[in-house]
Each structure stands twice: as C-alpha cells, then as structure tokens.
Amino acid sequence: MISGERRLESTPDREKLGIVLGLAIVAAIELLVLRTFTRTAVHIPALEALAGPYRVISGFGRYAYFVSLALLLLAVPLIIRAGWRRRTGPSLMVASGLAILMAVFALASFGLLQAFFTDVASVTVVAVLALAAIASVPGRARVSLGCFAIAFIAGGSHTALQAGRQDRIIQLDSGWLLNVAELLAIGFAVTSPWLLRRSIPRSAIVVGAIVAVATYGALLGNGSTVRILLLWNEGLSGTMPALAYAAAGGAICMTLVTLVRGGDHLLAAGLVLLVAGGFGLHNTYQTTLVAAGLSVICLAFVADSLGRGRVYARPAGALSV
Amino acid sequence: MISRLVASRRTLLSTFAVLLFAAGLQFFNANPAASQTVYLQAYESRDDPGLDPASNEWARAIPVQVPLTAQLGAYSTGGGSVPTISAKALHHKGKLYLRVEWADSTNDASTVRVEDFSDAVAVEFPALSATSVPSLCMGQADAGVNIWHWRADSQAGLKDPLQVYAGAQIDGYPSKDALFYTARAVGNPFAQPDRGPVQTLVSQTFGTLSPSTDQDVAGQGVYKDGKWAVVFERGYEAKNPQQAKFNNGTRTDMAFAVWNGSEGDRNGRKSVSQFVTLSVADAATPGSSDTNTAALVWAGVMLVGISGMGIAIGAIGYRQAKR
User: Which of A87, A124, A131 sits opposite B317 (nearest CB)?
Assistant: First the structure.
C-alpha cells in the first residue's frame, strides 16, 4: 500500500505540504510550551534565578502561538484550494466547510454575528468536515474519527446551548453532553491506532507505554494540575479513572510515532492538529485547528485512494496540500 | 525531503516572512482569534438582590453551567455527572452581584483541627491594568489577576478550640493586647472574622499572590440540601489598578475555583474552570417567559442550511467523480 505522503513527494507542491507540516509542528510546540509548561508555573519555586528563564520560555511559547496563527491563515486557503481541485465528494465538503467557517469567523469578528450563532455554525461545520473525513477513511478508522466528531459536537453543543440559554433562545439542560464528550474523547484516543495503514513498530509501542505510565503517574501524583491542564487544553474535566487517560495518551502517542516513522506525515499532521485543537469550543484558533486537522486527514486518504485508481478520477495537477 | 525543502530559496523567504508576520502580530498584540467559551450575562436587577442567595431576584437570572476539573476522590453527588459550577450574575445601581452554586455532600466550615480544610470558592478576573487576557495561573507580568476568595470557615467565624479538643488545657493571658494574638497582630485575615468571609487578592505571576490594599468585596454563603450557594457583591469601580473594573456594556473574563474541604482541597489543590466571559448588559433582566423564537428559527435554518449544503456538495462531487 502506498501511503499518500510517498506519492506526494513527486508532486510540485511539496512546499504547500511543508506549510501543513510546519503548522502541525508549531501548533504542537505552542500546546506544549504555552498551554502546558507555562501553566505549571505554580509548581516552579519562586526563585529569582528561575524567573528569567521562565519568562524567556513563556515568551517563546507565546511567539509560537502567533507563528501557528500565521501558518493557519496560510494553510486554510491552501487546504480549501486542494479540496476544490480534487473534485471528489469529501474533498468538496472540506473546501466548502472550511470556507463557510472562515466566513462565519470573519462576520463574528466584525460583530455581525452573535456568539450563539457563531457557536452553532462552528459545531455544524466541524460536523460536516468530520463526515467528509469519515467518508474518506476505510473500515475501523471511521470509528475513531466518529468518536472524535461526537466528542467535539457534544462539548461544542454544551457551549452553544449555554449561549442560547443566556440569550433566551433555547432552554435546554446540557450538562450531560459533557459526559458524552469526555467518554468519546477517550474513545477517540484509544481507537486512534485504527487510523494506521501499517503495522505498529516496536519503538512506537515503547513510546506509547512510556507515555501511558507517565500519564498515570502524573494523575496519581498531582492529579489537580494534570486535570487543570486537561480542561484548559483539551476541554476534558478528568472525571474518568486515571487508567483511561493513561491508555488514551499512550495510544495517541503510539499512533503518532507509527505515522511519522512510516512516512505518513500528512496524516500525522492531521492528528496533531486535532489534539492541539481539543474537544468542544475554546476559541476560534483551536476550532480552526480542528477543522484543518479533519480536512487534512480527509485529503490524506483521498490522495491515497487516487493513487490506487479507485473511485475517484485524478484531476489534472493533483496536488498534495 | 526536509533538506530539499530547506535548499529552496523560496521556502526560506516564505519561512522568514511568516516568522516576521508572527513577530508583528505579537508586537502589536494583534490577536485575530476570539473566545468561544461559555458566557454569562449580568442584567440589571429591578431590586437590590443583596447577599442572600435565596433572594427572589435570582429566580429571574439564567445560570450557566461551567465545567470544573474533577475533584480528586469521589465524584460530586449526582452519580457520575461532570462536576460543574452554576453561576448567575446581576447588577444593581453600580454594583455587580455574582451567585455561584455547586454540589458538595459535606459542609466543611471548621478548620480547628490541622487535618481539616474548609470549603471555599473563588472568582478570578483580569486586573484593570492587564494588557491581555492572563494566560497563566495567577496572572503574568503584564496581566495580573484579581481574585475574590470566599471561605466557609471565615464565614463561620473563629471557634473555641475547646469545642473540638474538650480535654485541652489553654493558658489564659491577662492582657487582650494584639501582641498576644500574633496572627491578628500581623494582619492575618483568618484571625479577623469581622472583615467578612471574602478576601480580595491580587497576583501578577506565580509567587506574588497577596491581599489587595482594598478589601471591598462582600459575600455570603448558604449550605442547603447538599449544595453551597455563595453571593459576591462589589461596586463597579476599583481604586487599585490591580483589581478588576466593571461597567454596563462591557465584557471581561472570569474563572472559578472550588475547594472541597473533606477531600483535602487547599491552596493549589482544587477544581478550576476555564476562563468564561462575563458580559454586563445595559438592559433589565428579561421575563422568564420571553423566548427569542425568531433567533431559534434562524439557528435552525443555519444548522440545516450548512449541513445540507455540505452534504449536497459532497453528493455532487461524488457523482461527478463517478462519471
């Protein structure tokens, strides 16, 4: 089986692929440095000698955020164009969904759209993009993406319904949606190996096991801080047993290492963007990361099915992203 | 592949342009991203709600359910539900009122024993002087935070240790001078219950949490039927630039923290929320029966329209590809 990434190396658009990969790398740095490391500041001794290095690192994390933003602004039009040019069902859904999302955020930024409508539109667009991604992937991979989609929709719907409640638009109790989001977010991570198109190397299993043990230990040791980071970064409250999060963390890392080692960089980038975006609605940056991640995953599998000459015709100048 | 990309001059120029653009965004603090978190509307109350959580004025306010990080140990009462805090907000004649409610199976209001910890709740706002939303715990150098911290033991007042340690022998002091009450003498707020159960704190990066020079927040909590309900009250204005300021028609960020004493919660061991948005509205509280039906219809049209459009485009693409 030829991975989408290996076929893409012969296309003239490797630079565009580089933007998506760069986005994924910088988004991961931003997540690890700005949203994770700097938020553990309360555990750093308040020594003068540490204040300087801490300020430098947090400043770097903040810069990574703006670099990620800049790359996102570049990557989204490229993904829209790539989806449009491929002319397949899922790729057209990607192109139209992303374009609608950007239009909604633009309207909201000018104060032309209330928060409730922005939230409804965001959740709906992500649902459409998830549908496109699910339609692109084969077999069990659909379960994993389905779990992500439902988790995001459940978490995002809670926020939208709360906004609707405040504006007297809709009066529905939505706390239970957070339970659904929590459960299925773990389900997505645990089933992420089903996205793989090759066998898992031993090194990936070792990395996954290390991450799982470290996560379990962190939840037992200082569970408060880890749960705070989980909520702020991923929108998960940490109500499930620690073993569930350990398994989730280990499975996601194992999947990512397998993808990177196997040269499936585009799919790895998509997965990183989903993790960096989190579940539910936090801000337009994270929502766009999720939308981009689902789009990239969809296009990665569409590229692969083009290579196998299956359902879809190959458009002239088929590109990566 | 990476070495080939790096070799490309266009790639290098593009990379430099992106880094420069990002630096420009950071320098001018031009953040195009917007918050999409839960938001809470504080409408004008017709009458003064006061500090009583059971006041009739609160019946008209709509709460938001804000998820908290799970507390260690058992889940909150309700069996497996995600721990949340319910928050309502009102304003009346230049004062902001916040009512928070959360489930807690035990009323922990005594800290006479060293192994006992108090139930508490705190609300955090960016400081007036903040130039950006604080993105760190306890604020950052250019964006401090203002915290209103209510404690159940402060509200219950000082207890005579003999109530807990009946067999204790306590020395008597002939003088009532503050000299012999060291906690009181150094200004420890927990030794001065007459100051009220709410402490106003300010912080500007870790390790700098301290009481504000202006202790201007009033509060009261009531424990009933396995729930705490606490009301905070403060005027809009703040003399101290490290405190938050409010006004009609403005928005600010707000976060919550809850301590469950029976779970051993204290200091950094607590349940916290993300930042949510507090919007202080000019208008009076709408009647509970007023529902914006038109907006609901528009939301439905948007939902069906976007999903229908996406699926239709997908179907068209699928048919075109099959030909």
Answer: A87
Instruction: Residue B270: give its domain's CATH number.
Output: 2.60.40.1190
Q: Are residues B228 and B303 located together in one domain of the fold?
A: no
Parent domain of B310: 1-33+288-323
The reply to whether B136 and B67 lie within a common domain is yes
Closest CA to A130 of A67, A71, A184, A193: A184
Long-range contacts at A138-145 (CB < 8 A, ≥ 24 apart): A138/A301, A139/A194, A140/A191, A140/A194, A141/A194, A141/A195, A143/A191, A143/A194, A144/A188, A144/A191, A144/A192, A144/A194, A144/A195, A145/A188, A145/A195, A145/A294, A145/A297
**Residue of A168, A287, A294 for testing the chain B interface, max B β-carbons within 10 Å:** A168
Q: Which residue of B has its CA nearest to A310?
A: B322
Query: What are the backbone dihedrals phi and psi of residue A137, each rounded to the nearest 5 degrees, phi first?
Result: -90, 155
What does each of the 321 residues of chain A score in pLDDT, given as a tens digit?
A: 334 444 444 444 556 678 999 999 999 999 999 888 887 766 666 666 777 888 888 889 989 999 999 999 999 999 999 999 888 889 999 999 999 999 999 999 988 998 899 999 999 999 999 999 999 998 899 999 999 999 999 999 999 999 998 888 888 888 899 999 999 999 999 999 999 988 999 999 999 999 999 999 988 876 778 888 888 899 998 888 899 999 999 999 999 999 999 999 999 999 999 999 999 999 999 999 999 999 999 998 886 655 443 333 333 333 333
Given CB atoms, is B209 within the 8 Å cutoff of chain A?
A: no
Domain count, chain B: 2
Q: Are residues B64 and B126 in the same domain?
A: yes
| Nearest CA among B205, B210, B34, B37 for reference residue B136 | B205
Find chain B residues with C-beta within 8 A of A165's C-beta: 62, 64
Q: Can you give the C-alpha Rg of chain B in angstroms? A: 26
**Residue with token string 């960020």:** B253
Please indicate whether, in this complex, the C-beta atoms of B269 and A171 are within 8 angstroms of each other: no
CB pairs under 8 A between A and B: 237
Copy the structure tokens of residue A245.
């999060």
Q: How far is A126 from chain B (nearest CA, A)?
A: 10
B166: closest CA of chain A, how far (Å):
36
State the amino acid at position B19 in one-letter form: L
Q: Which of A92, A108, A167 sits opposite B317 (nearest CB)?
A: A92
On the 0-12 / 13-18 / 19+ scale of CB atoms within 10 A, A84 is middle
With an 8 Å Cβ cutoff, are B322 and A9 in contact? no
Same-domain check for residues B112 and B97: yes
A281 and B69 within 8 Å at the Cβ level: the answer is no
B162: closest CA of chain A, how far (Å): 34
In a domain, B184, yes or no: no
**Do B74 and B42 share a structural domain?**
yes
Question: Which chain B residues have a beta carbon less than 8 Å from that of A7?
Answer: none
Tokens in use for A229?
């980071």
